[in-house]
């Protein structure tokens, strides 16, 4: 369904009252419904559309910009257009992708630029000023039951991630193919076909053609590729569902590794029989690809009949979560068969990192850090829908540590020590440590009482000492996923692993605008060392990447 624009908080005259510092008001803390309502209104304000394309120099800068960041670029992506005509998307994750670029010039100037990713569906809807497609999370096709019946084409909003690699910049969405973006102008260039070719996006001419594409296992690419810094490769994967009448679906994954020139270094296929949906993320070690397969069922008939979106058709099952250890083609375990282990039920969302404890053996333990939800049953993704995610209906997100022993075929799965009561989101490590043992993890921080609430700061975990550093804003400011930037020339081993900066975009309701905060990664609890204020708000975004290349225009 679509929501009428007039019912949304951004169109109401009600203003949230300022809250005292360090208030945690969303969950069951008992600080009063009035305080909670104030934070809810502020949170809803972070999900207003930002429709303007910007190009300007950032001049309001607090603190000092580190010299080492000059000559580099930060990219962010997230949904930013939620309305067409008099309708709003039913789920914010169906909003159109919007790339923001903060370019740090060699001479110290900082510029902000932004553009929408102009997918084929975006162009159609922009011309019509109306929604025209079914979506993954909530929108039905306008026109009633018959319009959506057997129409299996889903809109690609290209709104989840943006990744620079080699000379290319890709806007990613896990249920569609990537769009290539010009990193200097942010112009949308076309669809990347994973064979090195740029192709013109073409909407399916008929429902029959789309059904044929689905039956052939039409491919999409993950929104979460990972970089192996040791081998200097981008590791990504595409996926499609192979369906046979009367048999469970089989998820087919194609894993591909590229060097910086976008030359294919390896490719292998892997199947997950009975998987209801693709994993959202994965992890990488020197010898393995690591996938968590959540226990889900997919009720296909309401989707085929146009009655429900794919997300509405998914249900969590009271079954173990599977872990797939898939040997990399040129690793020490090449030629060894994949291994599937199980954990107690939970829901895996993002993988921060994975590494191996070899102990002189090629099949040593594999340690994985992830974010995810504790065990539950029934529908779940729709609780993130509506105008903005409603934390009264959302399970808290925790940081999880999973230790896999291939020799013993055993698993130890638990909330990461030191974060037992911390609600968090989107954990990351120093990118130079991907595939290697890590000591420090960084993530948005919500609270330390085990409740579900919006992210209002950042947390650093020392996995050796289990000590954490926390920095928070006032409770009507909200933090996005951080990006770790290693110091130029700095090492990423031993005690130098935290030698760099944490970059995070935040929204301040009281000023109704967003900013970029920079932290010393070794001391985030000291607060930002630099803050760059934008002249406007940004809708709460999803993921981003940093490049050591200056892509200013």
Automatic annotation (TrEMBL):
Keyword annotations from UniProtKB, A to Z: Iron, Metal-binding, Oxidoreductase
GO-annotated molecular function: all-trans-8'-apo-beta-carotenal 15,15'-oxygenase activity; carotenoid dioxygenase activity; metal ion binding
Lineage per the UniProt record: Bacteria, Bacillati, Cyanobacteriota, Cyanophyceae, Leptolyngbyales
The protein's name in its UniProt record: All-trans-8'-apo-beta-carotenal 15,15'-oxygenase
Species whose genome carries this gene: Phormidesmis priestleyi Ana
One of the Pfam families matching this protein, by short name: RPE65
Entry's family note: Belongs to the carotenoid oxygenase family.
Note on cofactor: Binds 1 Fe(2+) ion per subunit.
InterPro entries per UniProt: Carotenoid_Oase (IPR004294)
Cofactor annotation: Fe(2+)
Name of the gene: diox1-2
EC number: 1.13.11.75
Protein residues bound to Fe cation: 224, 280, 350, 543
GO biological process, one term: carotene catabolic process
């Amino acid at each position: 369904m679509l929501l009428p624009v007039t019912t949304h908080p951004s169109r109401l005259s009600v203003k949230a009252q300022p809250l005292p510092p360090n208030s945690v008001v969303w969950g069951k803390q008992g600080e009063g419904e009035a305080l909670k309502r104030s934070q809810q209104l502020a949170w809803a304000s972070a999900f207003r559309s930002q429709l303007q394309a910007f190009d300007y120099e950032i001049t309001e800068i607090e603190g000092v910009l580190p010299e080492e960041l000059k000559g580099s670029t930060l990219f962010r992506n997230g949904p930013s257009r939620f309305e067409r005509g008099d309708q709003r998307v039913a789920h914010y994750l169906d909003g159109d992708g919007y790339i923001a670029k903060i370019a740090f010039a060699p001479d110290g100037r900082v510029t902000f630029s932004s553009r929408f990713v102009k997918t084929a569906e975006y162009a159609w809807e922009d011309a019509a000023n109306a929604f025209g497609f079914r979506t993954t999370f909530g929108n039905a096709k306008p026109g009633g039951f018959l319009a959506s019946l057997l129409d299996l084409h889903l809109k690609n909003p290209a709104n989840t991630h943006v990744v620079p690699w080699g000379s290319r910049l890709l806007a990613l969405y896990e249920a569609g193919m990537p769009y290539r973006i010009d990193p200097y102008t942010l112009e949308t260039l076309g669809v990347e076909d994973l064979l090195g070719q740029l192709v013109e996006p073409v909407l399916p001419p008929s429902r029959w053609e789309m059904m044929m594409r689905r039956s052939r296992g039409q491919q999409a690419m993950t929104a979460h590729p990972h970089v192996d810094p040791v081998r200097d490769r981008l590791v990504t994967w595409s996926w499609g569902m192979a369906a046979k009448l009367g048999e469970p679906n089989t998820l087919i994954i194609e894993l591909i590794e590229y060097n910086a020139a976008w030359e294919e270094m390896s490719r292998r296929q892997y199947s997950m029989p009975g998987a209801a949906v693709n994993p959202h993320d994965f992890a990488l070690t020197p010898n393995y690809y690591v996938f968590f397969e959540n226990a889900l069922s997919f009720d296909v008939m309401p989707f085929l009949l146009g009655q429900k979106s794919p997300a509405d058709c998914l249900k969590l099952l009271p079954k173990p979560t599977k872990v797939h250890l898939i040997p990399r083609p040129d690793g020490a375990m090449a030629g060894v068969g994949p291994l599937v282990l199980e954990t107690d039920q939970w829901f895996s969302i993002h993988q921060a990192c994975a590494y191996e404890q070899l102990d002189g053996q090629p099949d040593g333990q594999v340690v994985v850090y992830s974010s995810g939800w504790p065990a539950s049953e029934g529908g779940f993704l729709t609780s993130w829908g509506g105008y903005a995610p409603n934390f009264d209906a959302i399970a808290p997100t925790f940081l999880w540590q999973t230790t896999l022993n291939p020799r013993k075929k055993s698993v130890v799965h638990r909330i990461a020590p030191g974060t037992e009561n911390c609600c968090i989101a989107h954990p990351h490590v120093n990118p130079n440590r991907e595939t290697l043992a890590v000591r420090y993890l960084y993530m948005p921080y919500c609270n330390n009482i085990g409740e579900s609430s919006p992210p209002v700061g950042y947390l650093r975990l020392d996995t050796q000492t289990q000590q954490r550093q926390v920095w928070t804003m006032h409770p009507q400011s909200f933090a996005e996923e951080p990006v770790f930037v290693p110091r130029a020339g700095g090492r990423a081993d031993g005690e130098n692993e935290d030698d760099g900066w944490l970059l995070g975009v935040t929204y301040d309701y009281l000023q109704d605008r967003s900013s970029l905060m920079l932290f010393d990664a070794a001391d985030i609890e000291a607060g930002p060392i630099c803050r760059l204020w934008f002249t406007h708000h940004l809708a709460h975004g999803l993921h981003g990447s940093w490049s050591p290349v200056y892509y200013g225009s």
